[in-house]
Amino acid sequence: MRGLPRRSRGKIRLYVGTAAMNGENRRRKTRTVRIGGFAHVNAVDVGGDSPVVVQTMWKDRLRERDLEETARRIAALGDMGCRVLRFAVPDLNAAEILGRLAQTVSMPLVADVHFDHKIALRCMDFPVAKIRVNPGNIGDMKKVRAVLEKAADKGVPIRVGVNAGSLPRDVAEKVERGMSRALALVETAERELAVFDEFGFADVLVSMKASGIADTVSANRIFAERNDAPLHVGVTEAGPPIVGAVRSGAALASLLAEGVGDTVRVSLSDSAENEIIAAREICNAAAELAGVSGGPTDRLLRGGVKVISCPRCGRHGFDTHGFTSRWLARLYALDADLTVAVMGCEVNGPGEARHADIGITGAGNRVLIFRRGRAVLAVSAGEADAAFADALEAARIEASPDRPATGKT
Ligand code: SF4
Fold first, then answer.
1. pLDDT tens-digit profile of 94-108?
2. Residue ranges lining ligand 1, Cβ < 6 Å
3. What domains can be seen in the chain, in order of their start residue?
4. What global pTM score does this model have?
5. CA 277 to ligand 1 center in whole angstroms
């Protein structure tokens, strides 16, 4: 029994007082918190110099009879770049099912718990890798202590998640009297952190989410200047896919380019797979922005597939929309650094496709497949998917001969 007040397990590196703060880089190096790394569960480090971690949340109620299929989908999400996956755990029955799932998958799973500390305690009887719970939401300090003691004992970090829509009453009243929502989020998060400090529990991450872009950016900037807890960044209730991706991109790419944010979740009214694609692209965009502004890029750069596709117009001889929607998830699951061009016609198609590692384009009533700038195959539209799959697998092996296939092409 390790218990409190021990600083709980994990690579905790404090950089208080050594913040790399200047006009362009607001990032204060955070401590590193390890998620998982026990039993069969992967270790994922968040914070410090670790790469920014992409995560998402399971969209459905967990059901016992779906566990096999759920585990299969979790593996596919892992192939796409998801490193941590969160589940809502509304009751003890859900805790049991999540626990059984956690015994079978290597991706670190997170239990999202509200109000009932017994649910958090039960989850930690299984290899559940992180708990999201707010002390203020549990209330009774004896119950909070029980959760923190068990978390310290098991090496389970905790994320405090503050949401602009559910501020404590006194803080909400301050907002009504003129306090900015961003400061209200920070004050609430720091109030929760004070409880962890009181118990000597350091394996804690923080999120402050609002549906507004300005509130999200300001709150995270202010927090990062004053604290060293790793930040989980996201825009809450961002919206339907296009709206949510744009809003999340505007907020999160700015923050990440400044070095603020250690793990990203994009919240969309859409699939977990598309949340992962959006989060990866936001990290890529942030790396490009950081490259321009002199910000830190190392934590954001990641390999993988870059997809270029034409918007389609009246000249198209190949349905780029249908093709990309059929192939997108599979392309993002490829463990290879490849540029893929999907073009509609011979006006711009061959030119773009020639600059990609692999390209496909319409040309009259045929579809051309390009490899490294050369048209290697002309097929009918009906044969295009199969021909592309073969060419893609050849390109993948060439790019990453030692890596196993993950894209299931
Ligand atoms: S590549 Fe061809 S089909 Fe696609 S937008 Fe350009 S001109 Fe139109």
1. 999 999 999 999 999
2. 310-313, 315-316, 343-345, 347-349
3. 33-293 (3.20.20.20), 305-399 (3.30.413.10)
4. 0.89
5. 24
